[in-house]
Amino acid sequence: MEITMSGIAKAFGTNQVLRDVDICLKAGRVHALMGENGAGKSTLMNILVGIHKADAGTIAIDGRETTFHSAREAELNGVAFIHQELNIWPNLTLLENLYLMRPKKTRFGMIDKEAMLKEATKMCEDMHIELPLQKEAGECSVGQQQMTEILRILMLDAKVVIMDEPTAALTERETETLFTMMKKLKERGVAIVYISHRMEEVFSECDDITVMRDGHSIITCPIGDISVDEVVKAMVGRSIDEFYPERTTIPGDTVLSVENLSPIGHFEPISFNLRKGEILGVSGLMGAGRTEIMRAIFGVDAHNGGTITLHGKELHLKKPEDAIKAGIAFITEDRKAEGLILDFSIASNITLPNLGHLCPSNIMHREKMLSFSQDLSDRLGVKTQSVHLPVSSLSGGNQQKVVIAKWIGLSPSIIIMDEPTRGIDIGAKRDIYDLMNELTNQGVSIIMVSSELPEILGMSDRVMVIHEGGVAGILNRADATAESIMTLATGGQ
Amino acid sequence: MNTNVTAFIKKMGPLIGLILLFIIISSLNSSFLEFSNLKNLLRQVSINAIIAFGMTFVILTGGIDLSVGSMLALASALMADFIVGGMDPIAAIFAAGGIGIILGGINGLVIAYGKVAPFIATLATMTIYRGATLVFTDGNPISGLTQSEAFHSFGQGNLLGLPVPAITMFVSFLILWFILQKTSLGRRTYAVGGSEKVSFIAGININRIKIFAYALTGFLSALAGAIITSRLNSAQPTAGMGYELDAIAAVVLGGTSLAGGKGHIVGTLIGALIIGTLNNGLNILDVSSFYQQVVKGIVILLAVLADRKKA
Amino acid sequence: MKKLFTLLAVALAIVVMVAGCGSNSNSGNAEKKGGTIGLSISTLNNPFFVSIKKGVEDEAAKLGMKVKIVDAQNDPAKQANDISDLLEGGVSLLIVNPVDSAAISTSVEAANKKNIPVITLDRSTDKGTVVAHIASDNVKGGEMAADLIVKKLGEKAKVAELEGIPGASATRERGEGFHKVADQKLTVLTKQSADFDRTKGLNVASNMLQANPDIQAIFAQNDEMALGAIQAAKSAGKTIFIVGFDGTEDGQKAVQDGALGATIAQQPELMGKIAVDTASKVLKGEKVDAKIPVDLKVVTK
Question: What mean pLDDT do residues A258-271 have?
Fold first, then answer.
């Protein structure tokens, strides 16, 4: 199947998102779609699968002009979109998710679980993947959920598969599995659209590339004809000499020490300390328990004992409220479910944890709150017309900036950042790295949990590696390499 | 269409509906718009409106309170008993308010700390409080309360040409509007309904917000109960049955989302006025009581549909 | 936006339509003759009160009077609202069938203040002035029911009592009359409320029969509950002498079939008719009796 989209234009209200975009997808090839958030990648793909309607332009499948009217119709015609927000029902098992729309039935019209299990198991074997098919999806890792979604689409005999940031939430190992799957898809003649911000992946896995900026397609060519620098330049309209800013802060004395903390679940007692102005990277495989440890420190989840000492004073943190009072902030991994109230305005989200110090008498001062959120929004460089707009109107990177803004507003001495740059574009990433440097220069200490090794290596003063619920080791910047981290993360010595 | 205009109309939707309703009813019967009838209308609306104000807070936190009618009855019965027992009637009204706070507070505690779904928790307390009212009153109304002029005027009297219950309603409205729009407590109420997880991590004491909302609703239900008791000069064991539905209808008509986090107390006031206007107007137009229920249902349905269409 | 307005337009059309076709007014030239009567009725969810309403409507049509009818749905607060609406709407006489005697007082006093004469129907008011009170004697009816059971089954017969909505005046009065006799001459094994409701009557009576298999008779404070009790007795395979109250159509039919032992019949249509006749007299300035009893009759096969 070959799909040609030409002259596509789309506006939401007065906001022109796409202008005259051309792209051609060929069978058996992986086509990278790159661009900063807000460049129009997702909108373009949503138009292809019928979620949005183009204002102008045509879509031709094998030369015939076609328009899908819904994502379901597109899927049934072999064009499937795997969104970043997976289409998974968390309270159903992976198997039930796989067969939700087209269950197998026995002669008597009953659901035939045996047959479905047999078929799904066979598919997993073919793809060389292992999935706990009978486990509830909500209890499975993001990687496992994503595999399930890909399997589901394969069962529909998809011809074109669009993947939006598929590796953003995956561990290295899961990423490898995904690439193996993609190769198998290519062999079957499937065309893949691969939306990603990760340069290495794009250059190792893709055949063609289209770079978008501000609703235009800037470059379309085979991957061999272009260099990383050219792609970056096309994306941001300027070249980035060095991606990670230089760390200039010299860490001071220990400010936070965690001793024998036991989060609920399968954990060994956790001990580590954090120095003034330091960035402590926390690495590990997905499911190793990094997030759980951070949640226990912040008081989101209860723990079974251990001591947390901040500035020489022992803390008893039972709930986030206590942690915030102690001067700790927590930028959560899942910004949509835990970081932002999507219906609230940017200003309301920023002021939310700050209500206590902004209105000591409980009366809200409109001007004071507005200037507070406006200042933070400007400082973080949130791209928006007004702080009164709902955060749901922002792109992922800008939403993340709002999450950071609301916590910076508390002037915390410790910031825990869980996957601070997940799913956001290069420009926004760089802004966040710069901010981290600025904060540490001012004496703030940062704990940064990340699944991206380059980020860990580029930003951390020390790296704590978590393996199966315990601290496998803490590496100094000089000793931290991709190899040394992965060795610890996988349980090696 | 210009987004500002659309947003404006969306916000004004319930008000436009109310005005249209006024125009239609008054064109069919001119006595509707007479000042004495408008006073009459306000007096009638006040009880449902006061309860619905509390319900707005509860619904904004993403909850629901089915026990308002039962709290109203129990607080009224206890208040009437205090008065018969010789307590100063005005002091008894305050006592009723205190009882309402306790009853509503119990709802809040069960929901916040017991982690019971609000629907279930208040369904249970609705039955418990109603049963307690019947036990306490032995099923009989409590009458022969007092000759106190001050107490009578609480439900029946006029002040500055306006019915006292209507004044109570407007004063409560202003205070509650201020809390909801101008204080951090109000903002946190919205936040809890918008997302409990986000609010919890942002350091908001969710349990305290919930208990506040339910206790407030208890207080307002008791206040409405005091008005009814004064108005009927007796406390009825069956008072307030089905009032939770009228209150919820007023909140929904006012555009507040049952999912929580979105809505406005101004809308609730207008919603209560719409329901009251329908009750009063259809009576004045001499529409059969059977049809009245059909019309009320249709109006609620259309209002909600119109809200969906605009979204 | 267009859709919103269409929806509103439809809503208006419905309101206007209903206002037209659903209107209670039954004679166009009524205003000239007798003036308008307001009728505030406690509930129309019960055939008894529907019959009262019918009696009022029929008689008013005959006399060429206009009636405005409002239904309080058993809520005393709604009744207060209804009556203030009627007073605003300019009725010249008020017939009130109170939900509750204590709660209606303030409304009656409000009418008194406006010099609008009030007639109470079926239930009385604790305070305020009425020109006439028209009612069956519920206490008397309760006594009649007990006497009937004594006559049929002899003294010390074992009986159960199905009570109405707790706190309702009919519940109190019928129970009071019944116990006046029964406490002396019968053995009341159990009494429970079934809210004047047929289904609840069935359930409660079934439970009673389960707990007290030697029940010989049941007094139900209305026919609906009595009809439920008949079903309960049937499924328990027992022959029980059941006495109902009200004499509704269903009740009388059950008596004819022999399923119901007896019912203490009120005559709701007659009550309605008498109310309108009395109203007409009052409006013409004639004198009427302050208490107008409407006969109860024992209906047996």
Answer: 86
Which of the listed CATH numbers 3.30.420.40, 3.40.50.300, 3.30.720.200, 1.10.10.10 matches domain A254-489?
A: 3.40.50.300
CA nearest to B308 within chain C: C4
Radius of gyration of chain B (CA): 19
Query: Are A and C touching by the rule of 3+ CB pairs within 8 Å?
Result: no
User: Do C89 and C57 sit in the same domain of this protein?
Assistant: yes
The answer to whether the CB atoms of B194 and A300 lie below 8 A apart is no
Measured distance CA(B11)–CA(B20) in Å, rounded: 16
Please state the separation of Cα C139 from the chain's center in Å.
Answer: 14
Q: Which has the higher per-residue pLDDT, C272 or A173? A: C272
Where in chain A is CATH 3.40.50.300? 3-236, 254-489
Q: Testing the interface with A: which of B177, B181, B198 to mutate, by most A Cβ within 10 A?
A: B198
Q: Which amino acid is at B291?
A: Y
pTM over 0.80: no
C73: containing domain = 29-135+269-294
CA distance A341 to chain B (A): 6
| DSSP calls for C145-178 | HHHHHHHHH-TT-EEEEEE-STT-HHHHHHHHHH
pLDDT (tens digit, 9 = 90+) per residue, A311-342? 888 888 888 999 999 999 999 888 888 889 98
pLDDT at A472: 87
> B197 to chain A: which residues are within 8 Å by CB?
337-338
- Does C261 share its domain with C143? yes
Q: Which of C88, C106, C169 to mutate to test the interface with B (most CBs of B within 10 A)?
A: C88
Look up the CATH architecture of domain A3-236.
3-Layer(aba) Sandwich (3.40)
Task: Tell me if C231 is assigned to some domain.
Answer: yes
In this predicted model, what pLDDT tens digit does every residue of A417-474 receive, in sequence order?
998 887 777 778 888 898 999 999 999 999 999 877 778 888 899 999 988 888 888 9
Q: Is C237 on the interface with B (CB under 8 A)?
A: no
The ipTM, to two decimals, is 0.83
Long-range contacts of B160-164 (CB under 8 A, 24+ apart): B161/B39, B162/B39, B162/B42, B163/B39, B163/B40, B163/B42, B163/B43, B163/B46
